[in-house]
Design brief:
Helices cover 39% and strands 14% of the residues. By secondary structure, the chain is of the alpha+beta class. A four-stranded mixed β-sheet has the order 3-2-1-4, sandwiched between helices. The longest helix is centred in the middle third of the chain and has 17 residues, at 79-95. It starts with 11 loop residues before the first helix and ends with a helix. 32% of the residues are buried.
């Protein structure tokens, strides 16, 4: 291990590969809340987070686990569920007065038409303004799940109509 008076230990979350502090600083300098999208093998989570000196504060959030309460029977980590989670989080954020945000994808790799941008599309459709390139958003057929199952479109529309009533 390196030693000496000039050696500086890297931050813990940087060593663990959890945080890119340069990217985080750029997002914080915008002064806007961050729309943080994270996914695992089973679930997707979208959170609207504001920076505070004492620590970041979550203003609004939604998870694919919340979709099960709305009648979603599909998988929790696919394109349709990502869109619905983004839509639900966007609705909750707009209720709290958040009109614009900056997308924070963390250490995930941005794939054109992927889950991250499906969640972004849901956030935008809910009324929150997020700067983006329209080319990265997935096609409507994929968002509605036609590539997964023929019946997925009906289930998607049913859950989305329940979310619109909130």
């Amino acid at each position: 291990m390196a030693e000496g008076s000039r050696y500086r230990m890297p931050l813990k979350r940087r060593k663990e590969g959890k945080t890119d502090y340069r990217q985080r600083l750029k997002l914080l300098k915008s002064g806007k809340p961050r729309a943080v999208v994270r996914y695992s093998n089973k679930h997707i989570r979208v959170q609207f987070i504001r920076y505070h000196r004492d620590g970041d504060r979550i203003e609004a959030s939604a998870s694919s686990e919340h979709l099960e309460d709305m009648g979603w029977k599909g998988h929790g980590s696919n394109l349709p569920s990502a869109y619905l989670v983004g839509y639900l989080a966007g609705k909750r954020a707009s209720e709290k007065g958040i009109e614009e945000a900056v997308l924070d994808i963390g250490l995930n790799h941005p794939e054109k038409g992927g889950k991250l941008f499906s969640a972004l599309n849901g956030i935008i459709d809910a009324g929150v303004s997020v700067p983006h390139d329209p080319e990265v958003l997935p096609e409507d057929e994929r968002i509605k799940g036609k590539h997964i199952d023929d019946d997925m479109n009906e289930r998607f529309e049913e859950v989305k109509s329940r979310l619109e009533e909130l």
